[in-house]
Write a structure and sequence with these properties.
With about 425 residues, the chain is mainly alpha-helical. The protein has a single domain, classed as Up-down Bundle (Growth Hormone, Chain: A). The chain contains 20 helices and no strands.
């Protein structure tokens, strides 16, 4: 298979950062137990992760072509590998914040470069959409694996134990292996460099010019609200399972993996469906189904008695239903990202990828902080119902996005 080694490297990079980034829900639960912080205080971990993603992406996206995609990814992997090795030896809340800050910076390097590199390994729009969905499905596989990896180190009998921090030795080692794989993989970036602007000022101007285009504005609104929904649920599901459904800490973390698993399956299936069905209808149907899951699955979970559950087989069936919303949310993000990127020349994939990462990060932070504060002040029973508002806004944005893409089959930032 052409580019198989590079594609494998991109997948592994995504898996590493999926485990690290989406451990924030688990860590939010654990820091409440270990360091005695409130839900509102714990919610800032999302900001320590996402704001560095947004700021770093904005700063590097305009000249990532000049740095080089491979070199940028290597920098991100090296940073998190070192920080993960330090974390277990400094068991304090401030170090947890520093850890997520480094993860955010590292992920900005990775995601901007990965999204931009997709154009180098895809020959047409359908191949781009399909591989984007495939890649994002492996991101969710990493999230799924992360839940079980972290839960293996959590001591439900002693919630105050910091033994779970040892998981970072493993994650640091995996990040280092990903570094070595990429280091020994050839990446031909000549097609991008030959069309690159002449200086950093021109690079930055190119990115800013993209932002003011109506099509890009509507696209940015769509991804902002999508990530707001996804992260608000993903970050607070372990706490919801533990404090609202009264599942043990270890089981709460493990069962949150249902969301990641269903999202991974949804994206794998979408990779095949999108080869046959127009992207717009896949996204519209997915949004409607997600809204139905909130209206039906959430009341079923809240109405069940899970207090006596000690394992997967003793948990009420209703507890499994709401996290299946991931199956329907799954195709939305990679699909609209790919539709947008495939309409740009290769040299602009870096700047556009930067904008995607920036507004995704801002959406994730906003969703998690809003959900955390609603959870604290009004109760977790109501927190996830808020997802209906951004889902509705995404439906409206996607309608206009489709109309604009039909009018502008391709464009540049000129």
């Amino acid at each position: 298979m052409k580019f198989w080694r590079l594609k494998l490297s991109l997948v592994l990079n995504y898996i590493v950062f999926a485990m690290l980034l989406n451990s924030v829900g688990t860590v939010i639960l654990q820091v409440q137990n270990n360091f005695g912080v409130t839900k509102g205080a714990a919610s800032v971990l999302e900001a320590f992760k996402d704001l560095p993603i947004a700021i770093t992406s904005f700063l590097i996206a305009s000249f990532v072509v000049r740095i080089g995609y491979k070199r940028t990814m290597l920098m991100g992997l090296a940073l998190v590998s070192i920080t993960c090795m330090i974390m277990p030896n400094v068991p304090f809340f401030w170090m947890t914040k520093l850890l997520f800050l480094s993860i955010g910076v590292g992920f900005a390097f990775i995601k901007v470069s990965v999204f931009a590199t997709l154009g180098l390994v895809s020959e047409n729009e359908k191949e781009h959409v399909s591989f984007m969905s495939f890649l994002e499905s492996f991101f969710m596989v990493g999230v799924l694996g992360g839940y079980f990896l972290f839960s293996a180190f959590v001591d439900s009998d002693d919630p105050a134990s910091t033994s779970w921090l040892k998981v970072y030795y493993i994650l640091g080692a995996v990040a280092f292996f990903a570094f070595l794989l990429l280091l020994t993989t050839k990446v031909d970036e000549s097609a991008v460099h030959k069309d690159a602007p002449e200086g950093l000022t021109q690079d930055f101007q190119k990115m800013l010019t993209l932002i003011i285009k109506p099509l890009v504005i509507v696209f940015i609104v769509s991804i902002f609200f999508y990530v707001l929904v996804e992260q608000s649920i993903m970050s607070w599901l372990p706490t919801f399972n533990n404090q609202i459904l009264h599942l043990p800490s270890k089981l709460s973390i493990e069962m949150a993996s249902i969301l990641a698993g269903s999202t991974a399956v949804g994206r794998l299936l979408a990779g095949f469906v999108l080869k046959k069905v127009k992207w717009y209808w896949v996204v519209r149907v997915s949004l409607v189904a997600a809204a139905i899951m909130v209206l039906v699955g959430l009341p079923l979970a809240l109405g069940s008695d899970a207090s006596g559950a000690t394992g997967w087989f003793t948990a009420p069936v209703a507890v499994f239903i709401f996290p299946l919303i991931g199956l329907f949310l799954a195709p939305i993000y990679p699909t609209i990202n790919s539709v947008m990127l495939s309409r740009l020349p290769l040299v602009q994939h870096g700047p556009m990828s930067g904008l995607i990462v920036v507004f995704s990060a801002l959406g994730g932070t906003t969703g998690s902080i809003i959900t955390g504060n609603v959870f604290q002040h009004f109760g977790g029973n109501y927190a996830f119902y808020l997802a209906l508002i951004p889902i509705t806004l995404i439906m409206i944005a996607i309608f206009f996005f489709k109309r604009m893409t039909e009018r502008e089959t391709s464009f540049t930032a000129e």
